[in-house]
Structure formats: structure tokens, C-alpha cells
């Protein structure tokens, strides 16, 4: 059994306090333990601010990008060994593990590529011009220019258990490129994979000392020490997110906080779609993938399936037929398509959630009944709402392989109303070749969603499914989804940069920020 350690202020620390155990969710065997306390968080922050931050910012944009590229290659080099850990501690099938690890390495590589087009030089290596400048006086001489600069603080990343590699990689990519040192807090149930990645990062020497620190235990005391130049990015439950946002120190010192919390995502089938068409097949395939990939433990997974009442019987039959082919079991076995949920606590929550939904919906397949043998297994569960407007269907996220069919009358207005009942979501997907329906739906739901994925005959075989988070698009959503934003190309750096309006002589601003020569006055 391994004891996970934290890498803080230049050393590995085992921690103190009553240990929490890590398990193989397929067999319930104990794999390791982590001690939640014993970290000197004041020393962690000093090390980041005084050692890591200056060294990182001294590199400039392009060399920071080169470090990201090297980190991506490092993960790829150790991919097979990391996949084994993902199976053992995370209950991932090999495909699920690749989804996580390749998401991390791919995002790091993407931001490394973006860095190639960013400015050179010591000063410009930490400054980005934000759009066009503006004349502020009677003549062009008095000028204003908005710029972004690296904030001299620390990025605390509190990551979720479901994507120990990707979640850490996507947050690191943006903060490190912005020139801000990171403290990565792993989600405990699957922390063995995050710990091994941390070991590789430290051993590689790719990042300057102090720019990367890793916490295997609790980070709650760290929140009380953060200051106005620091930032917190959190992925997890809405309850924990609310505690973080309400932390008295974060509120008092106006620490930047970005949250990604619960999201009851919807998939909408348009009334125009014919059974058996490419659009219909995409819909069925993507819904099943989202229900079963990572055992439904994805923040972007479909929880509500909106289907025109006229197509309900056909959709129900197609989904049940496809779900029946999903082999559930130990992901170390080659024929298994879906593994267990991550922990005993997660299993209890998923079963309790299914029971709450089953009180207002008919269970068509699966359910909350125990699966014989060891392990934290749940069968893929499909329900049919008794009434599509029942509040709990739009308020409870069952974070597992569970989704509910919600019949609607086929109108765009009805679909919009049901989608927005989610109170704010990360992603909604819509499948239709009717331009008028799609236009009405998109305009109606866009304010309540961070991302909208449109499937049609033309996207068949061309598009990655809606459950994938791509670094070129923002990841986050309003309301219940937390109100945060990550990724989205260079937009993902905004949490770690300060936008400042600089006003003065046009020629002076030109020299400062590499602008075109000032026009004649």
C-alpha cells in the first residue's frame, strides 16, 4: 500500500492526521492512503510567490509554451503506465483512461501551440495587448490601450475525482502560460493517478521550482491565506463550490474564484428527425456514450433526454437496444465497456439519486439495486418521466450512468422551456436538420448554457461528441453550473491576467506595447 505525498516548498511531505484510503473501485481492494493535514500552507504560498512566480514569468510566453509542450510529451511518454493506474484506481476502461490522459496532453499541446504566436521579450513576455487602442482626446496623440499582464499571485486548482489528469492539465495549461504558479489539489478517490503525474512533473525538471506544487490531502486552510492577486479554480459539487465562494477571506480580499459545479445537461431531438437517419443515429450513439463513458461521471454528460412525444417509442427502443450491449464489469477485462463509479460514497449517492428520480419516473432499465459481487457497480439506468415538468428532474444531478427521457410536444418553445429549467448548464446538444427549429432553440437557450452542440446530417462522422471538452471552446456555464469559464483559447488565461487601461502619449504606448507607429497629430 502506498502513502501519497504532497510536493510543497521544494520537498515531498507525507502529511498528518487520520488517513483516508484509496481503493480499486472494481474489487474494493485498498491501494493506498493519504493523510489530509500537516501542510504549511503559508510556506506553500511564499514558495510560489517568491520562487516559482518570478522564475516562471522570466521565461516569457514562448518559453513557457515550450515547457507546456514538454509536459504534453512527458504524459504521452508514460501513457501506458498511467493508463494502468487509471484502470486500477479510477475504474476506467482503457478507452475512458485515454479520454482523460489524452485530454490532458492534448490541452497542454494546444496551449503550447498558441504560445508560438505570442510576443517575445522580457516585458512583452508577460503582457498581451487587448484589442485595438482608442483615441481619447482631440488629437490621436492622447491614446488609450487595454493590456493584460500576468498577476503576481498563485493559482489554487481544486480538481475533481472524475478527471484526475485532464482536469489538472487543462487548469495548469492556462495558468502556467499566463505566468502564474500553480498549487494542484487532487480529488481524493482517484488521487493515485494525479500523484503519479505530479511525481513525473517534479522528476522531469521541466517547470521552474516553485511553479508547480501538489497537495494530496485537504486544501481547506489554504483558502484562508489567499490574497487579491491569487485565483481559485474549482471543479466539483455545487455544495462544495458554495462553501468556497462564501469563504470569508476570499470575499473580503476579492480573490478571483471560478467554479464549475453541478450541471443537468440536456440532449434535444428535433421533431423533424426521421428514425434511422444519420441525425437520429448520432443522437442515439452520443446519448449512450454520455451515459456510460466514465460510468456517467462526466460534468458534461447528458442527464435529460428531450424527445418529441411522437418519436418517444422509437427513441426508447433504440436506446434500450444500444444500452443492452454495454458490458459492465472490471475494466481490466477487454470486453468490458463500462466500469464502476469511483468510490463507495459515490455509489451510495448514485443509488440514492436514482431512487429519488424513480419516485417521479418509470425505470426502463437498470435501477438502484445492488450489483452482485465486490466493487462499486451501477447498471446503466434509463428512466421515463411521468411528467417532464417535475422539478426534481431538472434539479437533481445523479453523477453516474443515469439519464431520464422527457417527452415534449415537439415545439422549439417547449424544448427551450425544459432546457432552461436546468438553471444553467455546461452544455446542451440539439439534433435537427430544421433550420427554423435550431435557430429558435439556440437563441432561446444560449443565455443559460456555456456551450451548445448542434448535430445534423452534415456533422455525421465529422464531429466529436458533446461530452468532450475541447480547449478551443470555453468550458463552464452560468447559474447552477457554477458561473465559471475555463479554456476557450486565450480566453482561458483571463482568470490569471489583469486587464489594465493605459492612457498617455500614443508614441509612448507604442514603445511600451509594440504598437504600430503613432499617427501624426
Name some characteristics of this structure.
521 residues, alpha/beta, Aldehyde Dehydrogenase, Chain A, domain 1, Aldehyde Dehydrogenase, Chain A, domain 2, seven-stranded mixed beta sheet, five-stranded parallel beta sheet, 15 helices, globular
Account of the protein in words:
Helices cover 36% and strands 21% of the residues. By secondary structure, the protein is of the alpha/beta class. It folds into 2 domains: 41-261 and 483-501, Aldehyde Dehydrogenase, Chain A, domain 1 (3-Layer(aba) Sandwich), CATH 3.40.605; 265-470, Aldehyde Dehydrogenase, Chain A, domain 2. A hairpin with a 2-residue loop joins β2 (6-8) and β3. α1 packs across α4 (166-178) and α3 (94-115) runs parallel beside α4 (166-178). The N and C termini lie far apart (73 Å).
Q: From the 3D coordinates, which CATH architecture of the largest domain would you assign?
A: 3-Layer(aba) Sandwich
- The gyration radius over C-alpha positions equals 24 Å
Class based on secondary structure composition and strand pairing: alpha/beta
Reported for the largest beta sheet, the result is: 7 strands, mixed
Poorly predicted regions are: none
Give the class-level CATH name of the largest domain: Alpha Beta
Q: Count structural domains.
A: 2
Q: So how many helices? A: 15
Work out the number of β strands: 23
Mean pLDDT: 95
How is this fold's topology laid out?
Blueprint: E1 2-4, E2 6-8, E3 11-13, E4 20-23, E5 30-34, H1 41-77, H2 79-90, H3 94-115, E6 127-129, E7 134-135, E8 142-150, E9 155-158, H4 166-178, E10 182-185, H5 191-204, E11 212-215, H6 220-223, E12 231-235, H7 238-245, H8 248-252, E13 256-260, E14 265-269, H9 278-292, E15 302-308, H10 312-323, H11 344-358, E16 361-365, E17 381-385, H12 391-395, E18 402-408, H13 412-420, E19 425-431, H14 435-445, E20 449-455, E21 474-475, E22 486-487, E23 497-505, H15 506-513
Parallel strand pairs: 1-5, 9-10, 9-12, 10-11, 12-13, 14-15, 14-19, 15-18, 17-18, 19-20
Antiparallel strand pairs: 2-3, 4-5, 6-8, 7-8, 8-23, 16-17, 21-22
Amino acid at each position: 500500500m502506498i502513502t501519497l505525498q504532497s510536493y510543497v516548498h521544494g520537498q515531498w511531505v507525507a502529511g498528518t492526521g487520520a488517513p483516508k484510503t484509496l481503493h480499486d473501485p472494481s474489487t474494493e481492494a485498498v491501494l493506498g492512503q493519504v493523510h489530509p493535514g500537516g501542510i504549511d500552507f503559508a510556506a506553500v504560498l511564499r514558495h510560489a510567490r517568491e520562487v516559482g512566480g518570478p522564475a516562471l514569468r522570466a521565461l516569457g510566453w514562448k518559453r513557457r509554451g515550450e515547457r507546456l509542450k514538454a509536459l504534453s510529451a512527458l504524459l504521452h511518454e508514460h501513457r501506458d503506465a498511467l493508463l494502468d493506474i487509471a484502470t486500477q484506481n479510477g475504474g476506467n476502461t482503457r478507452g475512458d483512461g485515454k479520454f482523460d490522459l489524452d485530454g490532458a496532453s492534448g490541452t497542454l499541446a494546444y496551449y503550447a501551440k498558441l504560445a508560438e504566436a505570442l510576443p517575445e521579450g522580457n516585458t512583452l513576455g508577460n503582457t498581451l495587448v487587448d484589442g485595438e487602442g482608442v483615441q481619447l482626446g482631440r488629437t490621436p496623440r492622447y491614446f488609450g490601450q487595454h493590456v493584460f499582464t500576468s498577476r503576481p499571485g498563485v493559482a489554487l486548482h481544486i480538481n475533481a475525482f472524475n478527471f484526475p489528469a485532464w482536469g489538472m492539465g487543462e487548469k495548469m495549461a492556462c495558468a502556467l502560460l499566463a505566468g502564474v504558479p500553480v498549487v494542484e489539489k487532487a480529488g481524493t478517490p482517484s488521487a493515485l493517478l494525479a500523484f503519479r503525474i505530479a511525481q513525473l512533473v517534479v522528476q522531469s525538471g521541466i517547470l521552474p521550482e516553485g511553479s508547480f506544487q501538489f497537495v494530496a490531502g485537504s486544501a481547506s486552510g489554504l483558502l484562508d491565506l489567499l490574497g487579491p492577486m491569487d485565483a481559485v479554480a474549482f471543479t466539483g459539487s455545487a455544495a462544495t463550490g458554495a462553501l468556497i465562494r462564501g469563504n470569508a477571506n476570499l470575499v473580503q480580499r476579492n480573490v478571483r474564484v471560478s467554479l464549475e459545479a453541478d450541471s443537468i445537461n440536456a440532449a434535444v431531438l428535433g421533431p423533424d428527425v426521421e428514425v434511422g437517419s444519420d441525425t437520429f443515429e448520432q443522437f442515439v450513439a452520443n446519448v449512450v456514450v454520455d451515459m456510460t463513458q466514465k460510468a456517467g461521471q462526466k460534468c458534461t454528460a447528458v442527464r435529460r433526454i428531450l424527445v418529441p412525444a411522437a418519436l418517444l417509442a422509437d427513441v426508447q427502443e433504440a436506446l434500450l437496444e444500444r444500452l443492452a450491449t454495454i458490458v459492465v464489469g472490471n475494466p481490466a477485462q477487454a470486453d468490458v465497456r463500462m466500469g464502476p463509479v469511483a468510490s463507495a460514497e459515490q455509489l451510495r449517492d448514485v443509488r440514492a439519486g436514482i431512487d429519488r428520480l424513480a419516485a417521479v419516473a418509470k425505470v426502463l432499465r437498470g435501477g438502484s439495486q445492488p450489483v452482485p459481487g465486490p466493487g462499486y457497480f451501477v447498471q446503466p439506468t434509463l428512466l421515463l418521466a411521468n411528467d417532464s415538468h417535475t422539478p426534481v428532474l431538472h434539479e437533481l444531478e445523479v453523477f453516474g450512468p443515469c439519464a431520464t427521457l422527457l417527452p415534449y410536444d415537439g415545439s422549439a418553445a417547449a424544448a427551450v422551456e425544459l432546457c432552461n429549467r436546468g438553471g444553467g448548464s455546461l452544455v446542451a446538444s440539439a439534433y435537427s436538420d430544421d433550420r427554423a427549429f435550431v435557430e429558435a432553440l439556440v437563441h432561446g437557450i444560449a443565455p443559460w448554457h456555456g456551450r451548445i452542440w448542434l448535430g445534423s446530417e452534415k456533422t455525421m462522422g465529422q464531429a466529436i461528441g458533446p461530452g468532450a471538452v475541447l480547449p478551443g471552446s470555453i468550458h463552464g456555464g452560468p447559474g447552477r453550473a457554477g458561473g465559471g469559464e475555463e479554456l476557450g483559447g486565450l480566453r482561458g488565461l483571463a482568470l490569471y491576467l489583469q486587464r489594465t487601461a493605459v492612457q498617455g502619449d500614443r508614441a509612448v504606448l507604442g514603445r511600451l506595447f509594440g504598437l504600430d507607429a503613432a499617427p501624426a497629430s
